[in-house]
Amino acid sequence: MLCSIATRGCAAFQRRVAVPLARALPPVPQRLALGSPASPSQLHSIAAVPGPGGPARSVVVTAAASDSGVEEIIKAVREVPSRFHSRLYEAIWRLQAQMAKEVTAMAKEKEAAVTDMAKEKEAAVTAMAKEVTAIAKDNAALAKDNADTIALLANTKQQLLVALYAAGVVNARSFLEHVVKMWRMEQPDGAGKKRLDVLKRGLEERTDLAACLLRDVPSWVPAGMEKEKKKKVESMATNLEAIFKHTSNDIHTFNPVKGLILLRGAHNGPTVAALACLAESMGVPCHIEDEQEDTTTEEDNNAPAA
């Protein structure tokens, strides 16, 4: 009968007061936490429950009594005969050990989840860093390619200047003669054409050059002629041919290092602008120098007419 009472007491305790009492208990002794039965001295020191009228008060009961919701626990414990208290408190400690294991498992799961998140974030940052590095390498390679291209163009342009100089280009008129020679070689029946006809055909085939002349040398195209392509080209060609007839244009020199050097004065602005357009069309560097009383200024290709 007493065993039945103890059993019922333990079962009632587990149903009614397991969780609040487990919170109120002191740390589980290592032996009990590992599932070993407690010695009488251990149980007496940590779970001594007084009999009726006894002077002692259990450590567990004292700790639990501090919680207003644990009075029922104390009452339930006192209903169990004192000789069954050891088994009762052993069951309590086992329950507390089980709860501690569950809490530890939950903490480990949370730690693992945080670790996984940190690893994912680290992987994302690493991937982004690799992508940035790849972009930087591509940009560096592109910059190198651009630098190589610029160097190649500069070398090609320098070779062109040397070739023109070797071909007899020494001033503006000889430069224009070389241009006509090249255009004549490109055109069918060019060898038998007059120089003016070669210039006309060359301008018709080079719309960018015609546009440059129309923009920078508007005086070469009379008003109302802009929309008449044939008359416009003919007027431009006639003015280009006129450059051959004036020896004063020999003041514009050609340098194998700098290219075409045009000297702009008070009355030759249209000629200088036209030669600059022609030099740009042929890919030849051009420098324009303005003569003034005390100073000389330089400009690049396509300088507007004075």
Q: How does this model look, in words?
A:
The protein is of the alpha+beta class and 306 residues long. It is built from eleven helices and four strands. It folds into two domains: 2-112, no CATH class; 169-299, no CATH class. The chain has a four-stranded mixed β-sheet, with helices on one face.
Segments where pLDDT lies below 50 for 5+ residues?
15-19, 24-66, 302-306
Quickly count the helices: 11
What is the SS-derived class? Answer: alpha+beta
Outline: rod-shaped
Most strands sheet: 4 strands, mixed
Distance between the termini: 128 Å
> How are the strands of the biggest sheet laid out side by side?
1-2-3-4
Order of helices and strands: HHHHHHHHHHEEHEE
Rg over alpha carbons:
52 Å
- Arithmetic mean pLDDT: 74
Number of strands: 4
Q: How many domains would you count in the coordinates?
A: 2
Proportion of β residues? 5-15%
Helix content: 55-70%
Provide a short characterization of the protein structure.
This protein is an alpha+beta fold and 306 residues long.
Question: Topology, pairings included?
Answer:
Layout: H1 2-24, H2 30-33, H3 40-47, H4 59-65, H5 71-78, H6 85-166, H7 172-186, H8 195-205, H9 207-216, H10 229-245, E1 253-255, E2 259-264, H11 269-282, E3 286-291, E4 296-299
Parallel strand pairs: 2-3
Antiparallel strand pairs: 1-2, 3-4
